[in-house]
Amino acid sequence: MPSEIAISIESISKVFKRYAKPTDRLKEILLPGKQRADEFWALKNIDLKIPKGQTVGLIGQNGSGKSTILQIVAGVLKPTSGRVWVNGTVSALLELGSGFNFEYTGRQNVFFYAQLLGLTKSQVESKFHEIEQFAEIGDFIDQPIKTYSSGMTIRLAFAVATQVNAEILIIDEALSVGDMYFQAKCIERMKEMKQKTTILFVSHSISTVRNFCDRAIWIKSGEIAADGECSVVCESYQDSIGKLKKSLGKNNRHVSDNVVAEDAYVFIKKVATDKKTYMSGEDIEIEIQLDFFKKLISWGVGILIHNSSGDIVTVINTIRDDIEIQEEHNNIYLKIEKNQFIRDEYFLSISIVDNLALCPFAKLDYCTSFFVEIQKNKFGIPVAEGFFRTNHHWSFS
């Protein structure tokens, strides 16, 4: 393996056997040649090379195989087939409490865990004060780990794992257990380590992977779905999740039949946008055409905008805007100026209501949609995440 490569994985696969009954495992051992287990392939022919000093984020849904890769690299699991080379010392934080004896005190576990990771007793003694200061668990350092909260346990484990000066640091979703303050503190510690340490990092926080890592790898059903620049891979993964949510959300999405009821006062004839795809910051123009069958003395128009997951992003209503409509208008136009939506597909639901928005005269759900792309900054990072981007201005003094 070339000296500049920290981790090399060649065609590794990992199968786990699942038995319907415990006795089936014994029968398989005693009666070889007869398969009594269902096979689950957690990894399928993974090829991967990670250079020294690179920070790599693994993303993907639960059960996709991310943790299995980390466990194989750390030496906790052996692959069913394929080969793994690790060039350097490894410090791994794989799961809550791994490496700890829950009957020991925090102090005892620092020595126990650090020596498991390769430090001598004298090295642990010289680093103990810094470990204690970073963990910030106070007098609990001399209490058994079994009395700790999950957050306190991960604080101590991370403090030890990042003090052994390993050449390769492996972290598997552990930071999600800690509070926001400690998560930020851990990220700062890892930033300090980036220049001299190879970091393999699993997280469900896409923004953390995008902003912290040099490279992202999307694992899907035991295979590499995408590998490369963080913003590109993360965007592909988010698109996939959005499509999944969208397909699931369709079960709860009732699209109205656009038919004229016998006793209808008004009929929503047409709903359309001037374009199907916008960039964030562009104006969005919505046109609504109505046919009236009975006179409405005072009425209003409401527009609900849902995202692809079915969440209501915003409600726009003439009554909320203190606009009184007392005459028939067959054509209604709405301009959303300099839209601040994030990247997603959006659906419009339209209602014509009385002047108190209590009685709908006509309603059309999910009648049309549009897509919004979002700009990226000079580093290729989307300028906003969440539900929308606010208009804002920075000032400094």
Automatic annotation (TrEMBL):
Pfam families in UniProt: ABC_tran (PF00005)
Stretches assigned to the ABC transporter domain: 24-246
Keyword terms, alphabetized: ATP-binding, Nucleotide-binding, Transport
Domain of life, source organism: Bacteria
InterPro entries associated with the record: AAA+_ATPase, ABC_transporter-like_ATP-bd, ABC_transpr_TagH-like, Bact_Polysacc_Export_ATP-bd, P-loop_NTPase
Family: Belongs to the ABC transporter superfamily.
Protein's name according to its UniProt entry: Polysaccharide ABC transporter ATP-binding protein
Species of provenance: Almyronema epifaneia S1
